Every structure is written in structure tokens, then in C-alpha cells.
Amino acid sequence: MGIGGDWYNDVGSHMRITVDPTGGIRGIYVSATGHAAGTYPLVGRYDSAALADHGATLGWTVAWHNGRSDAGSVTSWNGQYYKDGGERICTTWLLTASANPANTWEATAVGQDVFTRDRPPQELIDQRLRRTGSVSHPHTAGRSTPEVDA
């Protein structure tokens, strides 16, 4: 099937991506956690010439700002797409929130997500959130604006 299509991470967030033959990635991201209501555009790149027995490297970024809210943060995922008995994208992410210079040291969180083609059952999502509490989506509503009708 390839990298394009629908993907879900282990906390139930959804992305739909399209790829072009030159290595471009575009799509949408819908967070299932945090304070990031609505749909967000994503953009990235992938290695269109990956070796046959290796994962295809890829990365994409979401700025947590849309017509409904502004979380003052950006997340970038980097990882590899594997098709070895099942498709998955294994990533490491960086979530950086806007901060004043004195608090820059605490502005970036790091974690990992695994994306698959199927949304995980709710009980597994709940277990993941209890176990780690760390997600790649904004946690605070400090910069959020009131929701508006789309």
C-alpha cells in the first residue's frame, strides 16, 4: 500500500497523508488528546529511494494552530515506515511550546509514537495514557481561543 493513507497512533490520533513520487508528504492530523481541537495540516518528506530490506525514513510537522485554536506549539515526528508482516510507522517526536527565554529549557518534550492502519481499542488508549501521560499534542489551553463554528 505504501506510506499514503490513514494512520492512527497508540492514543487514537488520526492522520491522513498523501505522498508524491519526489518524496513530499502532505495531509491532515486530528489529535485525540490534549487541547488541539479540530483538523491541522501536516507537511513533511520521505525517502523515496529506501533500501528494500530497510524502513523508509520519513518526517512531518504539525503547527498546532487552526481556525479553532492556537496552542502556541509545533510537533515534528521522524521515523521509519515498515512493511514486514504489517504496516507501521515508528517515530520519535519533539513537541516544542512557545516560551519566554528564561523557560526555554522546559519548552520541548520528547516521546515516541507508533502509527498503524487501525485505530486501537479504547482500553488500550486508556492504558497508554495512564502509563506514560506523554503525548505528542499540546497539553495546555493557555493560548487556546474559543471554538468557532467551522
Automatic annotation (TrEMBL):
<dbReference type="InterPro" id="IPR051764">
    <property type="entry name" value="Avidin/Streptavidin-rel"/>
</dbReference>
<protein>
    <recommendedName>
        <fullName>Streptavidin</fullName>
    </recommendedName>
</protein>
<keyword id="KW-0092">Biotin</keyword>
<dbReference type="InterPro" id="IPR005469">
    <property type="entry name" value="Avidin"/>
</dbReference>
<keyword id="KW-0732">Signal</keyword>
<comment type="similarity">
    <text>Belongs to the avidin/streptavidin family.</text>
</comment>
<dbReference type="Pfam" id="PF01382">
    <property type="entry name" value="Avidin"/>
</dbReference>
<keyword id="KW-0964">Secreted</keyword>
<dbReference type="InterPro" id="IPR036896">
    <property type="entry name" value="Avidin-like_sf"/>
</dbReference>
<feature type="region of interest" description="Disordered">
    <location>
        <begin position="127"/>
        <end position="150"/>
    </location>
</feature>
<dbReference type="InterPro" id="IPR005468">
    <property type="entry name" value="Avidin/str"/>
</dbReference>
<comment type="subunit">
    <text>Homotetramer.</text>
</comment>
<comment type="function">
    <text>Forms a strong non-covalent specific complex with biotin.</text>
</comment>
